[in-house]
User: Which sequence fits this backbone?
């Protein structure tokens, strides 16, 4: 089979012919149709992800494909940028009727992350949530899931041209990051921040109402700023970390999320697919992922 291999960290991918995967106990082979790219895949290629994978390895953690003719999505850690990948049977996720392979590749990471992060924050109907990077894959999912949970959404993005999409998906209020402090102040603050930028935690905390919660999902802007805990004490704020990977081992939690998401996917929840690249242009797909002007999920199609 063909696969894209990261032979050395921080270097371009190499297309190689590898042996077809042999499934181990409890595993099946997924015939890959599409791969959804995530910023975590980029970090893994740099050696900067939360779990470091030593090269050589095949990147790609989010795949959709067929097993015995039936389509499934899967979160595989790494190995998805290949024509086939061995997957634990329990890691297979149903694909709702009506989703294309590209849309199916855009749902697992973004929609599971959003639902479980908001659950972790204890978000309640009627509360206001700030969704950062609202034009990206996670942001477009977060706007929709938050609305489906009865939350009021303030969506923010670096580029004003990315904001109309957030409004179309259900955001009540939108703002560029530059205008965000004034907008949040006019609204009386927010109850929950889904933090994906990481660059200005103090700024994000200043947007919270007393008793507000910040869920730290990532640092897409590559900087992690120090945090003064006295800021938390003065207004009873909470900062909590979120990492999807270990939560996938908690079957009851995953099933709860799927019970909420699956009936709505393709209906009120629609994965937003941005640029789609053919398999032979995987490196170009990663470059598109790093363009802050991109919208929705970047997908590699086999």
Assistant:
């Amino acid at each position: 089979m063909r696969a894209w291999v990261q032979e050395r960290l921080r270097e371009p991918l190499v297309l190689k012919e590898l042996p077809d995967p042999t499934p181990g106990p409890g595993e099946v082979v997924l015939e890959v149709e599409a791969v959804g790219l995530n910023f975590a895949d980029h970090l893994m290629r740099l050696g900067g992800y939360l779990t470091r994978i030593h090269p050589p390895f095949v990147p790609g953690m989010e795949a959709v494909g067929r097993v015995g003719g039936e389509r499934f999505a899967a979160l595989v850690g790494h190995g998805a940028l290949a024509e086939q990948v061995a997957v634990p049977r329990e890691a297979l996720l149903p694909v709702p009727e009506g989703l294309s392979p590209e849309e199916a590749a855009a749902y697992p990471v973004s929609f599971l992350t959003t639902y479980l992060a908001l659950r972790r924050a204890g978000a309640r109907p009627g509360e206001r949530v700030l969704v950062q990077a609202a034009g990206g894959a996670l942001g477009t999912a977060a706007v929709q899931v938050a609305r489906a949970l009865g939350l009021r959404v303030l969506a923010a993005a670096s580029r004003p041209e990315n904001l109309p999409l957030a409004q179309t998906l259900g955001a009540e209020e939108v703002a560029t990051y530059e205008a965000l402090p004034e907008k949040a102040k006019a609204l009386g603050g927010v109850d929950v921040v889904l933090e994906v930028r990481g660059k200005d935690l103090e700024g994000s905390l200043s947007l919270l109402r007393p008793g507000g919660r910040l869920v730290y999902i990532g640092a897409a802007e590559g900087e992690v700023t120090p945090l003064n805990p006295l800021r938390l004490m003065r207004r009873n704020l909470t900062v909590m970390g979120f990492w999807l990977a270990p939560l996938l081992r908690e079957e009851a939690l995953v099933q709860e999320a799927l019970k909420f998401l699956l009936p709505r996917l393709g209906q009120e929840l629609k994965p937003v697919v941005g640029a789609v690249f053919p398999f032979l242009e995987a490196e170009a797909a990663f470059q598109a992922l790093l363009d802050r002007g991109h919208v929705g999920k970047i997908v590699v199609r086999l």
Q: What stands out?
A: The mean pLDDT is 95.
